[in-house]
Write a structure and sequence with these properties.
Layout lengths: L3 E5 L4 H4 L13 H14 L6 E4 L3 H9 L7 E2 L16 H7 L5 H4 L7 H16 L5 E5 L1 H11 L17 E6 L7 E8 L7
Parallel strand pairs: 1-4, 2-3, 2-4
Antiparallel strand pairs: 1-5, 5-6
Helix pairs in contact: 2-3, 6-7
């Protein structure tokens, strides 16, 4: 069922301004729409048996502008990490009252914990493992980084070691084919990328 392509949505106003965006349902900026349209060419060499997207409009828009709107199914587990009381705040604003806070380690008061993200990522991976063929998942930075960490057997907390920029693409695969161990075949591709 591999590879799995993880595709972050295009730019929003809050991603541009480095504000934590969990449940707030923001649209793409004009730049974000351009990034999503550019995915058409970037993904053209690939064929997907399954396309899934977060229910949040920034992912839905990215998926549609990339040419997969009618083919995509919505999976609620692809939604972004709920930032709770930190929704809309920058890291600097959060650190003003909680200097040592790290999302992937501490979670968000009033939002989701790393354990809740782990459970959501594991449930999604179990479903993905049951699919035949290549998969594309349109989603969000924090969740996709945690998902990639879980794919290779790390805790969701280790997702903090990964970075996925707007319209960035990550590739999950199995080392040495279906008999191999889960691996990250590529990460944060911004332009063209290897397809084999």
């Amino acid at each position: 069922m591999t590879p799995i392509y993880l595709i972050r949505h295009g730019e929003t106003e809050w991603s541009r301004d480095h504000r934590h965006t969990g449940r707030t349902d923001l649209p793409l900026t004009e730049r974000g729409k351009d990034q999503a349209r550019a995915l058409v060419e970037r993904l053209r060499p690939l064929s997907f048996a399954h396309v899934l997207t977060s229910p949040q409009q920034r992912s839905l828009q990215t998926c549609a502008l990339a040419g997969f709107g009618t083919a995509a199914g919505v999976d609620v587990d692809l939604r972004e990490w709920d930032c709770g009381d930190y929704e809309g705040l920058t890291l600097e604003q959060i650190h003003a009252t909680r200097p040592s806070w790290i999302l992937y380690r501490d979670g968000c008061p009033g939002g989701e914990s790393p354990e809740q993200i782990t459970a959501r990522a594991d449930a999604l991976l179990a479903r993905l493992r049951g699919l035949d063929g290549t998969v594309a998942c349109f989603s969000h930075s924090h969740f996709l980084c945690a998902l990639a960490a879980r794919w290779i057997g790390l805790t969701a907390r280790e997702g903090a070691r990964l970075r996925l920029d707007t319209a960035g693409i990550g590739v999950l695969d199995l080392e040495h084919g279906n008999a191999g161990e889960p691996s990250i075949a590529g990460w944060n591709y911004q332009g063209s990328f290897p397809t084999t």
